[in-house]
Specification:
alpha+beta; TATA-Binding Protein; 7 strands; elongated
Length: 129
């Protein structure tokens, strides 16, 4: 009986720890801008990025021409990325975070999912330019 109880407790602890696993920070570098037309400008890329972020709950802010800062607040977590862009490509690069266990290399696994969803939505918006 004691063995089964101990095994159950170890199993629960292992599952709990797996749920908090961190992964290397996922950055997107020089993703190509793919559109259905040729007559688009950098401002169109900018607008697609702003709209994509806003649709997913990111607060998007122009830092300067060619650079957007995106901030996502989820419960008591914050993730912030830099999104440099031009007419041909964009990147999504880690900038800062709060309560995501960032250690200089690894971060809470949810961060990478948020960045991947942002990239997917940006690509969807760009595809209809």
């Amino acid at each position: 009986m004691k063995f089964k109880l101990l095994a159950s407790l170890i199993g629960i602890l292992a599952l709990t720890l797996l749920g908090c696993v961190s992964n290397p920070v996922y950055n997107i570098t020089d993703a190509p801008v793919t559109t259905s037309t040729r007559g688009y400008q950098a401002r169109d890329v900018r607008n697609a990025i702003l709209q994509a972020g806003a649709s997913l709950g990111w607060q998007m802010k122009d830092a300067r021409p060619g650079l957007i800062i995106g901030t996502l607040n989820v419960r008591d977590h914050m993730a912030q990325v830099e999104i440099p862009y031009d007419r041909r490509s964009y990147s999504i690069v880690y900038r800062d975070s709060y309560n995501l266990d960032y250690d200089g290399v690894n971060i809470h696994k949810n961060y990478n999912g948020w960045v991947q969803r942002l990239s997917t939505e940006i690509n969807a918006r760009l595809s209809v330019l």
